[in-house]
Amino acid sequence: MQQYSSLPEQNSQKDAPPKDLIKIQQLRAELWLERSLNQLQSRINDCLLSACTTVIQSGSSEAAICQTVVNELDSALNNSRVAFTQCAVGIALFQPQETVRICYVSLSSSPGSQSPLIEVILKKGKKLCLRLQEVIELKDLQQLENQKPPQAWQLANNGGVIGWLMIATASPRPDREPLTASQIQLRSQLMSRAAKQCATALAQVRQIQSWQQQSQKLGSFNQELERTNQLKNQFLANTSHEIRTPLSSIIGFTHLLLAQGYDPSRERHQEYLKIIQSSGKHLLALINDILDLSKIEANQLEVQWENVNVPELCRNVLALVKEKAANKGLKLCLELDPDVTTLVADPLRLKQMLLNLLFNALKFTSTGAVGLQVVPKGVFAHFTVWDTGIGISKEDRAQLFQPYFQIANAVTSRSEGTGLGLAVTRKLAEIHGGCVEVESEIDGGSRFTIILPLKLGDGGDEGDQGDEGDKGDEGAKSFLYALRVIPSSSLKILLVEDDLPNGELMYSHLSKLGYQVSWVQNAVEMWAVLTQLEPAVILMDVNLPNGNGLNLVQQLRENQRYCKIPIIAQTAMAMKGDRETCLAAGVNDYISKPIDLPLLTSLVAKYSLLPVAEGDGEKGAEGQGSRSAEA
Questions:
Q1: In this structure, are strands 306-309 and 331-336 parallel, antiparallel, or unpaired?
Q2: DSSP 8-state symbol, 107
Q3: Could you tell me whether strands 435-440 and 87-94 are parallel, antiparallel, or unpaired per DSSP bridges?
Q4: N or C: lower Cβ tally within 10 Å for the chain?
Q5: Could you give the CA distance from residue 435 to residue 429 in angstroms, rounded to a whole number?
Q6: Neighbours of 570 (CB within 10 A)
Q7: Average pLDDT, the chain
Q8: Residue 230 and residue 491: Cα distance in Å, rounded?
Q9: Does the reported pTM lie above 0.70?
Q10: DSSP strand E in 479-588: where?
């Protein structure tokens, strides 16, 4: 030490360190910079990993990253061997009101810290305090960003600037030397690169949150799909059961009647036929329920508004369930307020709603009574179906109107129906501008109330007001074509039908009535018969094997020879738009399958009048007409 102290150039060497020492100091500074940035990135990665592995509230991950950045920078700047003056770090972010507010500060400047208050000093002498929730003007931030050395660095991503990383330094103490140019440059490099790391991490955590939200939506969607699939399977199972039950009766009793050697009495024969007919109607009612729900959900249900005689309709409805109530030994009650006489509604749909509720009440009631009460309340009529049955739990009431949902029924031996009745009822009430309410307690009975406006429009939205009504309970529908046709005295009918059972049914029925029916199965046979026959009416099936029935109708309308022949379309199509499609093709009337024979008789009679009474026409009418098919 004495040797170095005696050197004449000692002071000059102190002022100008050797090149090796300078290089060592530069390497130390670079190592410190990279180590600090690596440490910062490591802590940021921990935050990102936490955001990936845990679903937390939106903004929590961003807050964790920002606080980690300011704390790590504070530690690097204040606890390093590289001589820096005391400083603090903060992050200012844009707020929804287009203001910039300091949202995060390092621990050394937090409340309760022993560090002196640190200020951001602007060139113009203005001082800004680096503390939480402090509002900073945008022009001040821009000045801090552009001054030399800078004290603010942008946090920017593809979406633009989201905030600034800021540094505030305390006034230098007398016992500390001021920062050198290399130290200032080193600090600026650290802050600049840290700002980029912070901005990148914020962009990544937002992307992670976006993926998590999408994942949650997909998860919810998958759960809903799984629930829908379970309901579908349950519905198919219930529907299969409901279909097989009447089919078993139809097939069984038909087989019994056809069995050789079995000769039942006339009364038993009639009983079997009634069972077969009843089972067929049950199948049709099931299909109608499914179609109704499909139409409602597709907003395709047509409603025919009429002035409904409320007392008459209610008595008719109770008459339909009277036998079932009597079989179970239940009392059936009707209470009508004299002030409720008429209601603007679709009578068939109102009847359908009341029947659904009454059948449910009878289904879940083993003793006591079932009743229907109608009272006015303001501009609304309340139709309440009540019972003394088993009641409904609170949990079941929450799902009661969901499609396909069924309550476990301890009263009956099996689960009946498809779970569509209440869903259809509520939808029909909403279409009428009303609603359905339910009150029930376990072992205390239930009260279902249909609330409907007395006049159209009193309840708000009237729903889909179609031009015609769907007569779902009747199973067959007919619509009058715009042209008026004078009935002909001719008895010749041309039946175009490729389905053998339906063709045989209509051929036999019309022949027994005295009509001369020519039955063909396709378009080629139809044109061949028309060259030799002038029918009073054509019964046209819409779906034919070698030609669309509606196309044939259009061709007939374009032909001068056949354009005035009345045409009745018969088809299994039953959705909204099918009627309009048939009428647009040029048919006069439309009847849906399964064919209602009395309705078919009345439609044909509009265009071909029988010269004799129906009873006389049946005598000797067998064999009239011709067939182009083996029935």
A1: unpaired
A2: G
A3: unpaired
A4: N
A5: 5
A6: 26
A7: 79
A8: 55
A9: no
A10: 492-496, 516-520, 537-541, 543-544, 547-548, 567-571
